[in-house]
């Protein structure tokens, strides 16, 4: 009889994933999603102004191309609400598969789009629709990957295991810029702009297959299964989290704001600032350090390696001293880094631009890494997918959706010092949000209310 009861209990116990397998699967999945996301950003800076917009007004085409970046940021909270609803209702695993397919198929279709010369205004309209598709996919991706990693982590190591989905960002950045660098080196900048830009988008179909295989082999999170068996699931997770847990959403949003502003100043604004853009200079924008595009892409590859290394370091530190104390220290350093921006870029050389990117990516990694642990820790299990995803993606609107365009305009009026102040002010907002929360390092994810 006792043996029968033990067997039944073992049968009822949710199957647990191997934490190492979960860490790898979450890292591979987010790397694929961020690869898709970043190849769009690279193409928007390098290519799309000539392929999807009229060439009659070059400066307007550049700004329009960059403005399409913002569409995904505004779509991301919608994606987090949509996928968060199903992630909290039917589980993390199925929802992560759906988010991967949404992002991947949108990316592949971008690589097949006709150009402005071929179909006119329909080209940018279709580009915008697919960019929104990318935003929806990534909006649902991050929260699920962070939860799968942290809900399966061993005790005392949630921040460390949470860094694995965070590593998807630098790995995706490296892959995206590496592909563009290799293609440009192989066929030349002219062919890259004319047709070869499509190759990175079409390659995404191979990555989708890899990501699907990794995710379909996982079990559902035992934390979610336990909440489900205890009847803790809610009928409308998104409305519940917005009504009852709006405070941690606001806190999480502003905690993440400086991270986003820093990243897009480095990868988009500084790329434009560093290159020679005669059409922008003619329109009154003080730009153009004359650094070749492929040189800057090489700088981003180095930066991505630094970014990834310091993401890993951050998980160890945040588990030892706590998320709050760790992030307060790093965010304070980002504030000072913003004020020091003119020292790197005012009369920048290739060496000083590389130095700016290396220091910035180091700070980015130290700040970004613990977020996959901290944001989920702010919410109870039954609304954790929705809450963490919404906070993360609202931060994208606050900190990243228009960061590049705002930085360009500030630079026009106030110079590079003004751009640095813009970064420092956002770091100040993040510090205020960090001071408003309690430490979450030692809480149980089952005990968050």
From TrEMBL:
Question: InterPro entries annotated for this entry?
Answer: MFS (IPR011701), MFS_dom (IPR020846), MFS_trans_sf (IPR036259), MHS_symport (IPR004736), Sugar_transporter_CS (IPR005829)
Q: Per UniProt, which keywords does this protein have?
A: Cell inner membrane, Cell membrane, Membrane, Transmembrane, Transmembrane helix, Transport
Q: Which Gene3D superfamilies match?
A: MFS general substrate transporter like domains
What Gene Ontology cellular component terms go with this record?
A: plasma membrane
- How does the protein associate with the membrane? Multi-pass membrane protein
What are the residue boundaries of the Major facilitator superfamily (MFS) profile domain, all occurrences included? 22-441
Which residue ranges traverse the bilayer? 60-83, 95-113, 119-138, 159-183, 195-216, 254-273, 293-314, 326-345, 351-375, 387-408, 414-437
Q: Which GO terms describe its molecular function?
A: transmembrane transporter activity
Where is the protein situated, by its record's location annotation? Cell inner membrane
**NCBIfam families the UniProt entry points to:** 2A0106
- Name of the molecule in the record: MHS family MFS transporter
Organism, scientific name: Paralysiella testudinis
């Amino acid at each position: 009889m006792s043996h029968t009861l033990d067997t039944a209990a073992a049968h009822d116990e949710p199957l647990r994933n191997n934490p190492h397998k979960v860490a790898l699967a979450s890292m591979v999945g987010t790397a694929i999603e961020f690869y898709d996301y970043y190849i769009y950003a690279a193409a928007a800076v390098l290519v799309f102004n000539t392929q999807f917009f009229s060439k009659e007004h070059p400066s307007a085409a550049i700004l329009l191309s960059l403005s399409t970046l913002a569409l995904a940021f505004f779509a991301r909270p919608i994606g987090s609400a949509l996928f968060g609803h199903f992630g909290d209702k039917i589980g993390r695993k199925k929802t992560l598969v759906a988010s991967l397919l949404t992002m991947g198929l949108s990316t592949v279709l971008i690589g097949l789009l006709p150009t402005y010369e071929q179909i006119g205004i329909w080209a940018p309209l279709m580009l915008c629709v697919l960019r929104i598709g990318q935003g929806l996919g990534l909006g649902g991706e991050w929260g699920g990957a962070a939860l799968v990693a942290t809900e399966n982590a061993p005790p005392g190591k949630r921040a460390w295991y949470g860094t694995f989905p965070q590593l998807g960002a630098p790995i995706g950045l490296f892959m995206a810029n590496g592909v563009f660098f290799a293609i440009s080196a192989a066929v030349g900048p002219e062919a890259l702009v004319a047709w070869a830009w499509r190759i990175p988008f079409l390659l995404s179909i191979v990555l989708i297959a890899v990501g699907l295989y990794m995710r379909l082999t996982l079990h559902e999170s035992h934390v979610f299964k336990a909440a489900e068996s205890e009847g803790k699931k809610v009928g409308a997770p998104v409305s519940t989290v917005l009504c009852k847990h709006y405070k941690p959403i606001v806190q999480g949003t502003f905690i993440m704001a400086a991270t986003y502003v820093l990243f897009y100043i480095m990868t988009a604004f500084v790329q434009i600032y560093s290159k020679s853009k005669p059409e922008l200079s003619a329109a009154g924008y003080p730009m153009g350090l004359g650094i070749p595009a492929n040189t800057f892409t090489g700088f981003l590859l180095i930066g991505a390696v630094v970014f990834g290394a310091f993401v890993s370091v951050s998980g160890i530190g945040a588990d030892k001293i706590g998320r709050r104390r760790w992030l307060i220290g790093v965010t304070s350093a980002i504030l000072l880094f913003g004020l020091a921006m003119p020292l790197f870029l005012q009369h920048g050389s290739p060496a000083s631009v590389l130095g700016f990117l290396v220091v910035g990516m180091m700070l980015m990694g130290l700040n970004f890494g613990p977020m996959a642990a901290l944001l989920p820790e702010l919410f109870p299990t039954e609304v954790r997918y929705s809450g963490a995803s919404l906070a993360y993606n609202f931060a994208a609107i606050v900190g990243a959706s228009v960061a590049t365009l705002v930085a360009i305009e500030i630079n026009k009026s106030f110079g590079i010092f003004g751009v640095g102040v813009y970064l420092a002010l956002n770091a100040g907002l993040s510090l205020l949000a960090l001071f408003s929360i309690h430490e979450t390092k030692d809480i149980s994810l089952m005990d968050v209310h």
